[in-house]
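Input sequence (407 aa), recorded before submission:
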Amino acid sequence: MTTLQTTPRPAAATPFRAGRLAIMLTAALGVAGCANTLPQVGPTSGDLLDPNPEQTVDYAIVSLDASAVEATRAATPLAFEGEGGFRNARPLRTSVIGVGDVLDIAIWEPVEDGLLTAAGAKQAAVNAVVVDDRGHIYVPYAGSVHASGKTPERVRAEIVARLSDQTTDPQVTVTRSAYNSRGVSFQGAVRNPGVQPLEPLTARLLPMLSKVGGATSKPGSTKVTIRRSNLTSSAFLDDVYEDPSANIALRSGDIVLLEAESRHFNAFGSVAQPGRQPLAGGDMSLLDAITEVGGLDGNSANATGVFVFRREPADVVSQLNPVAGREAHGMEKPELTRLGPDQPVIYQLALNTADAMFVASSFAMRDGDTIYVTEAPYTQFRKVLSVIVPTLGTAGSIASLRNVAGN
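Predicted structure, token format:
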């Protein structure tokens, strides 16, 4: 009799084996999570948008859109803005004579034998007359004339009046050959440092800077500080070039200090070249900055997780209508007045649309800004696998998997 041979069927316990394998994977994941062993470049998007209620720093989260760009643009500090009214000051009246100025005086007499003119000459010159510390000058036959605080025209009229009693119809001109009474001190990164006289053609910052040969560093990395009595105001030179109203009027006694000082921004997270980067100028945009660091990391970046950290004035934050991090947990929204004049703000940009590209190209970077790009979710998954795979690769785990497969 022929015996029928049958091939054994696979064990019916496949769901059981899969269940045990799932349990092992879950356990590995749990161990990895509890041990906090996954490498991470910084907080995730979820950490920023849904923060821990026990956080110690209150910050505002703002979606970076066209309205936010306009609000921040309007709040961008102007060059030499602030106390002292540097921007609104009118040019000094350099026509007024002061102590130390040097005058040249010419006198004409329409007579053959005048008081000051020699025989056959009609003109006499009294040059290089220095205004003394009392504010006086001495003119032959006119005597001591008070010149300080007067214009050359007034001094001329007084000399004419004094000579008219001694000669016929004297004609007089008074010109200033040296403006020594008012000086501005240029120091630091300038080609020709020193004290420069304040003259009509150099009554403002840029003409005076040109007179001393200009700065020795690039405009974008040259900080100009004006010290006037007990007031101080600063600006970067490229901002002065771009804003005509920042070409401020100088005053006698001003100290102008130029320093080579670079502006920077920070970039970290999933960017190609993280680190501290120079801010090329006041017109550098967020898109420029991202390009400067090589763009987003194509292997790990989350294009919807581009964040910019900075501090903004409270009135700007109120215009943005931000949602504070803690408010998402039902906690009290931070009071801007309690947080002080500058509040931490995190701008979020989803850099995966054409609109976002235009927004990024319009958002101006500032000194000290920080760009942070989070990782994509699949990157975190790969990190989880990098922890699990070595765990499953141990002898005990491999034997357990064999047992699971054999059951």
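Checked by second reader. The two ends are 35 Å apart (CA to CA).
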